[in-house]
Design goal:
Blueprint lengths: L5 E4 L5 E5 L6 H14 L15 H13 L3 E8 L2 E10 L8 E8 L8 H16 L3 E7 L3 H9 L3 E11 L5 E10 L1
Parallel strand pairs: 5-6
Antiparallel strand pairs: 1-2, 2-3, 3-4, 4-5, 6-8, 7-8
Helix pairs in contact: 1-2
Length: about 180
Amino acid sequence: MKFDAKTITLKDGRSAVLRLPTASDAEDMLNYLIETAGETEFLLAYPEERQGMTVEKEAAFIERMTQDENCLFLVCEVEGRVAGCCQVDFQTRMKTAHRGTVAIGLRKAYWGLGIGTAMFRELIDASRRRGLMILELEFIEGNTRARALYEKMGFRIVGLRPDGIRLRDGTLCNEYLMQLRL
């Protein structure tokens, strides 16, 4: 999906750019995926699950995602580095085309700077332009930072998957479904 790059000012005064990723971002994106998977228990993969990925596969993935009219996939670049990424996938079946699914992640070094809020605004705006009625996302029990951001953006818990996540140590966590009515 098309997107015109936007420059934002972070809470610490630095500039950041929200933009479509390119194949030249593949190596940094791969490092981002491995790094973020190790920074929190609240993503769906552990770092070792990302080890089989290659720069070439990531570049191909980026190409597919940026050409897909049923997806908006963005990165946030700060000082030449991918700080985070987000996407909204638009449903295409007649019965679900009023919904979209959101995913978002940031490197820990960039938490609390306003990037998540800025990325959500773009995803929400694109979803409204697309004519969606509902945005959905899931989060893991205990992820209070993410939940606070989601609620700030207007999302509300509408469902629960009891023990939907099993951590490495065997701990079972609930997974929550949130929706935003547009």
